[in-house]
Every structure is written in C-alpha cells, then in structure tokens.
Task: inverse folding
C-alpha cells in the first residue's frame, strides 16, 4: 500500500535544509509567472439599441384637439376660397404648408415627411411642403449645458475652450451651438430638446387616432393610411436617434474619401462625445446651398460675389450633386433621403458637404438593377423597356392588366424623352428632370391601387429633389448625360479592381478576396436559380386582393346589420329608461319606441354615418380591378 508523501510548506523557508533544491528527484519550487486577479467588472455585453419614449395619453388627447383645429382651419379657408372663386391646387398647397409651419414641432416634421409621400399627395402639394421651414424658439442655454455635461460626463470647460450661448439654429428637435476645442478646432454641438421624444409620441398617437377615424368614415379607403402612419413613426424615431444618424454620417464621410473623389464629403463626427442627446461634429464653413440657389434665381449680386470669392461655381455644384446622388444610390450602403438645400453646405472650390443623416434609405439588389436598366434604356431612347424596368419598382402587383399598365407607363416615358430631345433653353426647369416618368408611375400606382415600397418612394423623392436643384442652378444641365459620366467612373473603378487582382495573381501574392468572390458568385448563381424557379411557379401578386368581391360585400352587409341591431337595441333601451324616469311607466308599444328613435337626430345621424361608411367600403372593394 502506497503511503502519501507528506510535503513540506511551499515556501523557501519551509524546505528542509537536508533537501537540495537542485538535486534530481527532490522537492523544490519551480519558477512561475505572476498572474492578475480576475476582473470584478460585471458590465453586461452591449445589446441592440431601442428608442423608447413614454406615451402620455392625456397629452395625446389634448394634441388630438389641436389636430382637429388644423383640419377645421384648412377646410374652412378652402371652402371660403371656393365660394370666392379663387380656390386652386397651388393655393391649397401653400395654405397647408403655412398651417404646418405655424404649428411647428411635429407638424413641421409631418409636412417634411408628407413631401416625400408623392404616392399619398398630389405632386404640387409635395413640392410646396418640401419648402417647410422647421424653426422653433430655442430653449435656455443653461439646460443645454446640463444636457451636454450629463451626456459626456465631463464639465463643459474641460471639453471646449469657447462655447457660444447663442444657437446657430433652433428647430423643433434640437438647438445647434458653435464651440471651439482646446486645440482650436471649430465644432457644432447639437443638443436635443428636453422631453421632445414624449411630445412626438403624443402627436403620433393623436395623428394615428385621426387617420383611423378618417378610415372609419371612409374618407380614405380602409387600410390606405396604415403604411404612411408606420413610416411617419419610423421617420420621427430616426430623427430622434442621434447616435444612428451620427454613425451614418461618419460612414458616408469615410466612403466619400474612399471614392477617390474629393469634391464631396460630410463633416467629421466625434463619436466619443456623441450620445442619444448630443452630437459633436466638425464645423463646415462655407455657404448654404439654399443661399446660393436663392442668389442665382434672384440675381442677388452680393451672394454671387461671395460665392465667387470662395470659388463656388453653380454649374459645378449642379453636376456634383447629380454625381453624388448616383454614387450613393448605386455604390454606397445608403443614400441621403432628404438632400434638401437646407441639408447641404458648400465649401471652397465648390466642395459639397452633406449634413443631417437622420433620413436615409437603401435599395434591394433588384431595385438597384431596375434603376440602372432604366437609365440604360433611357440612353437608348427605348420607352417600352423603360416601362418594363419600372415594373420591378412597383412589385408586388395586384391582379391587373399588366400589358395596359406597361402601355400607360410607356406614354409617360415618351414625354420624358421628348423633353430631353428639346433644346434645354426652351424648357422650364421642371421639364429638365425625370419628374414626368416617376410622377406618371406614381399616378398609375394610385389608379391601379398598387402599394409602392417606401424605399422606392424615398429614392424617387431624393432623386427629384437633386435633379430639381441642379436644373435650377444650371440652365442646361442634363441628368442623363451626367449619369453617363458616373457610369464611366464605375467602369474605371471596376477596371482598376480587376487589374489589381490579376497583377496580384501573376505575382503569386495570396489573395483571399479572389476566393471569397468566387464563393459569392456561386451563391449568387444558386440564388438566381432559386428565384427563377420561384418566379415561374409563383408570380409576384398580392393574394389579399383575390378575395371574391361579392363575398366581401356580403361580409360588410352582415357587419352593418350587426352594428344596426346593437345600436338600435341600445337606443331603444335608452328610450324606455327615459320614459320610466319622466312618465313613471314603461311603454310597451313598439310604435312609440320606433317613433322616438326616428325623431332622434343622434340616432338618425349615426345610422346615416354607418350606411355611408359601410357603403363606401363596399364600393372601394368593387372598384378594384379584376385579373
């Protein structure tokens, strides 16, 4: 039986003197590396960020009455204009813009958002609402300083050597201040308004109630506004998410540097000082694009002279705006969804700086390819294939006559081609854009009840904004010719990439990227095979529209009957209860009850509203086009 070996203490002093530490087979200490104690940090891993603001329903109810006031004011003034014979679409659009600007806050944001929804409002309204000015009285600078210090966890003097208490701009969302770092660098500090998130949530809820009521009264078809309401909610949350907007701006700036074109960028964002309430970014000196645009159109010599001193050439700015729009749409991860002149600064030598990346968008691969093919067919003056390319942007299609839709799309494309073939000097700037094609497509989508993807709507709105600004700056600019220049850039970049890859292979250098690309090509071919087989077996159709119309009508009639029975029963009980209180007896004569019901204006109005709403719901469904 083995006996356990009794070890001495593991300290040098504990070793028996008779044991030689260097002798073989003896007990001795061995050298060891000193280790650190385990970390006591209990911080959990970072999780996905969610913007969450508390909804105050009482405040939402109060804001609902404000919305009712806006609707009443707009309707009353429009009615009076009609009586006076001066009611026009342009006048109504201008009044709507003024109402939104006067209310400010989320009303201004709604106006800006509606300017992007060319599928929801007529084009004249969208153009007018794109001019909405978001201005609001600034909040106290002491509050802004507290927010900055709480967000950065640093006293203000340790961050900036100078901080201007007078804001550069004040909007419904934030105040912008100019400051200077200790190293002398000028920066802009954007501070979010206190409790603006909660206010926006109340307005969103009130807006949701208002449009739900409008659908219930069949002012709009059932479900017609659901997509717009959801997109408006996402738009406001994007505006409130300063961190995400800052990351997008930083990504855009770095991608612009990698594009090998030095005529556009975005101000640098100091992400280490950025939070959900504060953004610190580089101060881009220069002049606003809206300022140059106003100077060109008004012939303001003071503005034009200032532009010349900075070597800002309007014609060069126009071409660069078109180039950047094409690059962001086809090469970058996302495009700026609101390239309004208020969001663009012009630096020296006509350098273009984009700011405010709260609203962005991105397209799927098939949507990008459809836009590329459309421009290629436009170059070839092929309106039929332009129309076929546009169909991809309108998917999924309901059961409609696709041939008829293509023919109508082709007629709008001919209008665009005729305009491009005419002398630029003979046309107004509106006809020197692609508006004829895209507005035509949106009108046909409304006619055929096609729901266009919100991403497509964003890119069309951004494209039309850029093309309109460019046409107003440059009397003879051609957006199709400028796209050809961008296409040559893409071809040059592709040639360089292929040349570099081939040279590396010839030099025997390892190129893991080449192997990855081969793998991606295999995946693309597999996906293409799958999509082709799926397309042949299952057409891109919204099968919700396949419900039999008369079955739907019977369902609505049954619903109306149920509503009528329930409301009539409750009203009859109210008549009986009233008779008991006033006459002391219960009238059992049905004629007495029916007479009181028909004499009640409330009962008659409710029944008429129910008939009107359910009848229009049936008519909306019957008006849908058959396969």
Result:
């Amino acid at each position: 039986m083995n006996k356990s070996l009794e070890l001495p203490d593991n300290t040098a002093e504990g070793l028996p003197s008779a044991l030689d530490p260097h002798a073989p087979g003896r007990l001795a200490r061995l050298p060891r590396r000193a280790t650190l104690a385990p970390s006591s940090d209990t911080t959990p891993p970072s999780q996905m960020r969610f913007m969450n603001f508390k909804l105050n329903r009482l405040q939402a109810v109060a804001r609902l009455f404000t919305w009712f006031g806006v609707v009443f004011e707009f309707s009353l003034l429009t009615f009076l204009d009609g009586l006076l014979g001066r009611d026009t679409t342009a006048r109504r659009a201008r009044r709507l813009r003024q109402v939104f600007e006067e209310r400010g806050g989320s009303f201004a944001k709604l106006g800006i958002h509606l300017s992007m929804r060319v599928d929801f409002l007529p084009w004249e309204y969208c153009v007018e609402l794109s001019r909405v000015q978001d201005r609001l009285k600034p909040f106290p600078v002491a509050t802004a300083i507290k927010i900055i210090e709480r967000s950065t966890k640093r006293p203000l003097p340790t961050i900036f050597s100078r901080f201007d208490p007078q804001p550069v701009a004040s909007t419904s969302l934030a105040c912008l201040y100019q400051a200077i770092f200790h190293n002398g660098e000028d920066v802009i500090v954007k501070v979010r308004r206190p409790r603006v998130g909660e206010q926006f949530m109340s307005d969103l809820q009130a807006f949701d109630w208002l449009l739900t009521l409008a659908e219930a009264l069949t002012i709009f078809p059932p479900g017609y506004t659901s997509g717009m309401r959801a997109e408006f909610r996402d738009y406001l949350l994007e505006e409130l998410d300063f961190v995400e907007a800052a990351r997008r701006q930083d990504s855009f700036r770095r991608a612009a540097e990698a594009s090998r074109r030095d005529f556009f960028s975005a101000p640098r964002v100091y992400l280490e000082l950025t939070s959900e309430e504060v953004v610190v970014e580089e101060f881009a000196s220069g002049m606003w694009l809206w300022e140059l645009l106003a100077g060109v159109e008004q012939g303001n010599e003071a503005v034009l002279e200032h532009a010349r001193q900075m070597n800002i050439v309007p014609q060069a700015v126009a071409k660069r705006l078109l180039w950047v729009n094409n690059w962001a749409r086809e090469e970058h991860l996302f495009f700026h969804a609101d390239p309004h002149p208020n969001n663009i600064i012009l630096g020296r030598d006509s350098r273009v700086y984009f700011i405010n990346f709260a609203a962005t968008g991105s397209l799927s691969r098939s949507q990008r390819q459809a836009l590329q093919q459309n421009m290629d067919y436009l170059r070839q003056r092929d309106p039929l294939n332009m129309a076929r390319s546009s169909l991809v942007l309108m998917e999924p299609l309901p059961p409609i006559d696709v041939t008829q839709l293509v023919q109508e799309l082709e007629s709008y494309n001919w209008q665009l081609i005729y305009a491009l073939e005419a002398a630029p000097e003979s046309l107004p700037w509106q006809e020197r854009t692609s508006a004829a094609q895209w507005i035509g497509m949106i009108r046909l989508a409304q006619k055929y009840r096609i729901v266009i993807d919100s991403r497509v709507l964003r890119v069309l709105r951004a494209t039309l904004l850029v093309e309109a600004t460019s046409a107003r700056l440059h009397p003879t600019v051609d957006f199709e010719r400028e796209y050809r220049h961008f296409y040559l850039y893409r071809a040059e970049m592709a040639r360089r990439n292929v040349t570099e890859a081939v040279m590396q292979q010839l030099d025997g250098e390892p190129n893991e990227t080449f192997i990855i690309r081969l793998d991606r090509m295999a995946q693309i071919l597999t996906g293409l095979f799958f999509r082709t087989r799926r397309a042949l077996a299952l057409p891109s159709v919204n099968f919700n529209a396949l419900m039999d119309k008369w079955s739907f009508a019977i369902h609505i009639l049954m619903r109306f009957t149920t509503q009528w029975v329930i409301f009539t029963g409750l009203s009859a009980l109210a008549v009986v209860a009233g008779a008991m209180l006033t006459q002391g007896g219960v009238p059992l004569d049905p004629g007495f009850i029916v007479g009181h019901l028909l004499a009640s204006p409330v009962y008659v109005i409710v029944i008429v509203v129910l008939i009107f709403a359910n009848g229009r719901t049936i008519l909306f469904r019957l008006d849908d086009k058959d396969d």
Notes: The first strand starts at residue 160 and ends at 163. The longest helix spans residues 549-583. Residues 546-622 form one domain.
